[in-house]
Amino acid sequence: MDTPIIPVAGGMEAGLDRTPATAGRGTYLETLHSWVVTVDHKRLGMLYIGLALLFLLVGGFEVLLIRIQLFVPHNTFVSAGTFNRMFTMHGTTMVFLVGMPILFGFGNYLVPLMIGARDMAFPRLNAFSFWISAFGGLLLYYSFIGGVGLFGTGSAPDVAWFAYAPLTERAFSPGHSVDYWAVAIFASGIGSIGTSINIIATAFSMRCKGMTLMRMPLLPWLYVTTSFLVLLAVGPLTAAQAMLLIDRYLGGHFFDTQAGGSAILWAHFFWIFGHPEVYVLVLPPFGFANEIIPVFSRKAIFGYPAMMAASVGIGFVSLTVWAHHMFTIGMTSFGNLFFTLSTMVVSIPTGIKTFNWLATIWGGKVRFETPMLFSIAFLFQWVIAGLTGIMLSVSPWNWQLHNSYFVVAHFHYVLVGAILFMIFAAFYYWYPKMTGRMLNERLGKWHFWLMVIGFHMTFDVMHFPGLLGMPRQIFTYEPDRGWTTLNQIVSVGALFQAIATLVFVYNLIDSYFHGDTAGPDPWDAWTLEWSTPSPPPVYNFAVDPEVASRRPLWDLKHPEDPDGPYE
Amino acid sequence: MHPSKFWDKDKKEGQVKSPFSVRQLVAAPGMWVSTCVGAAANPSTSTFSSLSTPAREVYGLSLFVLAITGMIFFSVSCLLVYALVHFRARPDDETEPPQVFGSVNIELAWTIIPILTLVVLFLGTARVLFSIQDARKPASALDVTVVGHQFWWEFRYPQYNVVTANELHLPLSSAEAQQPTFMKLTSADVMHSFWVPQLAGKTDLLPNRVNEMWIDPLKPGLYLGQCAQFCGIEHAKMLLRIYVDEPEQFKNWIAEQQQKQPEIKDQQAADEGQPNPKIDERQSPLPPNSPATRINTANESAVVPQGTNAHDGQLVFEHQACINCHTVAGTIADGRFGPDLTHLMSRSTLAAGVVSNTPDQLNAWISAPDKIKPGSLMPNMHLTDRQNAQITAYLLTLK
Hints:
With 567 residues, chain A is mostly helical. Chain A has 15 helices and no strands.
């Protein structure tokens, strides 16, 4: 089949790849070898995504055990120790082994393509970052078998994902499970920093001809912001892990309160990482929304400069809010007030983004395909997550809500309702680019509706046990508290989400073999990645592209009405 | 019987279904606008049925914030739904809509309006924040020191020299006679958090640090709460009970708690026929060594066989490692690692609220703490059944 030729703005003819699609298949071992030694940003992106999907299933399985245990009060389905391990591993897995890798995966894949580059700035650093992150993940999970220490306790870590000191000190957590936790995060942190440096260098130095920073699509912009946040935030976390290991093995007393150390010190270190981390996870999905919502509304993004400024603004403000996780820890009233204010300030740039998405839809012609469905759900859920975030920023109310199921509901609204929903949208949107096949639209709709029903059953209802006084991280609860029915609805919702995820995974596998052929530009989109074949060749672009606006493909498709004059 | 038992009729082991849960579920959506309801008769952990000034102020603030955020949600959702319905793609319409790239005025509007909203929210928050956190401590205030332990609560009343565990007794603070309780909170091991939703928000307990909070319960009754900061394996079973007593009741309770238990030599004397008023008269009006007394003691429990006597129990208790961790004021037992047992029988639950304080449960707890609360730091001492029964009999005398 002849590949279509798209002339690139500037009159140069660059079409798409004219070399044969495959240079002949290798043996199984050769293929495997080529994936292990690859430094291609697209393959590494897919490796990241594959790894993250694997851990998504594992983390999902862990949470199902949690939800079964909480189905009735005084349940003995799993022991207290197992339950504590499950929620520790669920949290650590979902943040460090699902969220970060899957977003870095998409970033790896998309950033060079969207800025018209042939690879990342440092391909071998890229490979190193992936493998060290994967190593961190395997190390964490090895703790299930290797974590039994000299003292005969523990397998996986059971100190909660924020691992507050001094519970993690040797006096309270003998054995090696905490060591595995610390070293695993240490390792994956190195990977994250490597990838961040790579993304920043790529976006700043490898943009194609004509792509000024103000013409760079918003997705790379958000990845740049995220990467700066990773550089600033992961450092303290890595330092804290080193300090913890020094405490545990070299007689340090940073967090060892029995020897004069400070428990609050750990909390500060952790949340100086932990809160920017939330934005590290949510900014790339904002980037997905910035690409998907305009394409399916058939309109340019509303207020590009404001969107960009808001993203960078969120990045800056998010560095000043960490202690809103610590309103109950005993800060002074002025301390509490400061973090109330800084937290509320985040909602201003966030609000700008939300209103700009709304304005992008306004006046458009909205197509309701699966990527857009997930994006619409994202918009509603993001608004709710933001508003419960404002509630939590009100420090006196936070004294009641902190560490309750209300907080759990709030941050799952962010992590699932916003981030995971946009990740699903991104899968439906870019899977055709990555594989050359469309995802099945009918299964996609099943996935979407099951997910929406399950999500709202689980996380809407989950606010209420929190308001009724249910703390998080408890392996069981008393029958007389009025939490039982609510927990049962939550658990049933979790089952819906599990089924939805399985439908999705089936769709991913089945469509790879039987999906409709996608072609280079199935969504009639406007950014550079859609100008190459699907999947793109190793070198991405046969000829270096040259752009004259933020939407180079719009210019090509509408030569009579190019974007340039309006920007 | 201790007055606390009056409110405490809910404890039935293995009870799964509670009429309360259904009621709460039905009430849940309405809760957003519900007003304070007196829930003292029905112990509740709802943050919206506040019965103390700090909790009430937070509750009022929460309604204010809910109103504002509710309006934001309503208006944004309406706009979004309208946009999605009105601007949906019509079939067979292949044309592109007009491209709009932005509008500085509109964007300024939706920057400034949220800023103004936040100023209002922030000022409302600041008022409540200072009014609670920087409240002055009146001279009439009761001091309580709360020490968190894995996995139980130690309560000290420095003004009265009273120490107890897991069940905090506080005086009512009425409008006429204000007696708020000012608490200092710290931890003996890891982080914990003190949370009784009807009385106040939570405050963390940290080792090497003292935090403060205050409450002024406005209704007598039982208040429930639990540890709200993950503190290890039995975090879920670190429950809190607060009994708010009328001032008179509270004084009596303090007076009872201040009494010491008799020395063992008094008991030996008692065995030799000299009645010890402190222990035996409270147990029974009969002479201490009469068979009827022993049967009375035994009848309290099937696990304490006839002929078991509290005095033997005290001997076992004091000759085992029990006293390394537990205090019984007035005796040689002065361990500080575990809960103070001086007036164990005045408490309605064992093991930080996990089981009710009956002779059977007490015996089961002593025999195998790990069965009732796996991971509890109280070890199984591997005593004989007879020794366990004797200790139980002894502890039953610690009224």
